[in-house]
# Entry
Amino acid sequence: MADVSLVQVGYAREIDSVFHARCTISLITLDEDVIEHDEHTQIPEIAPVKNILFDCGAAHESKAISETIIAVGRDISCGEQFRNPRMLPSDKAIGACLLRLSNETITIKYITTPGHTGGCCSLIIEGALRFDFKKYDKFAFVGDLWDEKDDESFYKSLSENPEQSVLSRSYIFNTVKPDLIFPGHGPPFAPQKQY
# Structure
């Protein structure tokens, strides 16, 4: 079982012609360790993990948290180890798996979803999941691929590559098909629209 809690619910809005934003930060707590077991991932092996902190903003300045993966963009750290998958932001592959972890009840994939920036990634979790006292089967933590649920009017203007954003969103909706999407700057939402 994985329990998801929101450390901070962010926002994204324009005030007096200036864009203001605060990142949503999610903490995924696992009831048993997940381990990396896929030899095809593009980063070195990571030790067993109990927690995952997902943030679309800058890397945390806090001291390393043991047994916790911190995922920001294409950078992944675990304890005092920092991993970079050595993919260039110019790589436009959608859905490339940078990291795969699992245990008997959970599978976690860290995949590329470029568009907002070339280095955007999403964390996909499948299995026995719980959020807000409800059970689910699949979550997508998408960072700035979605700023918030109702960002349709402005997300393209904030994207380095708007066409790539549309393709990555379509991949999340039509291939991943999550129960909930956790955006970069707002509360989670259930997908409604098809791309």
About this structure: The two ends are 30 Å apart (CA to CA).
